[in-house]
Amino acid sequence: PDVIIEAQFDGNDAEHGQDHLQDTLTDDIKKLSLDTGEKGETKQDDGPKVNDPRLLPDKFLQRTAKVVYILEKKHSRAATGFIKLLADKNSELFKRCAMFSPVDHRVPRAYVSLADCPPDFVTRPEDYSNMLFICRIVDWKEDSNFATGQLAKSLGQAGEIEPETEGILTEYGVDFSDFSPEALECLPQSLPWVISPGELAKRRDLR
Q1: In angstroms, rounded to a whole number, what is the distance separating the alpha carbons of residues 101 and 118?
Q2: Residue 156 region, left (φ>0) first, then alpha (ψ -120 to 50), else beta?
Q3: Whole-model pTM over 0.85
Q4: How do beta strands 42-43 and 35-36 pair?
């Protein structure tokens, strides 16, 4: 009863059922617990000491790790969201920063400079309560609950198709800029263009 064991089991254990798992844990606990003699005397078991995790079987150990270096930043660090004033109006941070709340809750909230916000945001913040913005996270200090971001642009009203689409494409790093003249020159220049009968005969029509 004095031994707490964190156990892990794989699919093989699951196939044998819960009873098999219970029997296995019971046998292992007996090996690690104190052995009581016939006369009520207790003696230390010859098995491994439970206070030294290095002597426990691997299946009782939870492997842990620590991130030591970011090799490549896969995320674009850009997010779509809303800006609002800070709650504490008496703080020095209120005079310098606003709060950016991303739509995607997997992205942290961030402080953004008031200089990046619209000029009348401080006096009329309610006008921007439903306005979508693109913010790019530039830093996140270890001693801060919020990241530091920089507003990139205003997208427009939330709920409209074009701002929402542009926000999604920007977040995932999709290049949606216009094609270059060199790329457009590869297309047929004589319009309207139609598929020739010979080419159409070789294709399967999925229209």
Answers
A1: 16
A2: left
A3: no
A4: antiparallel
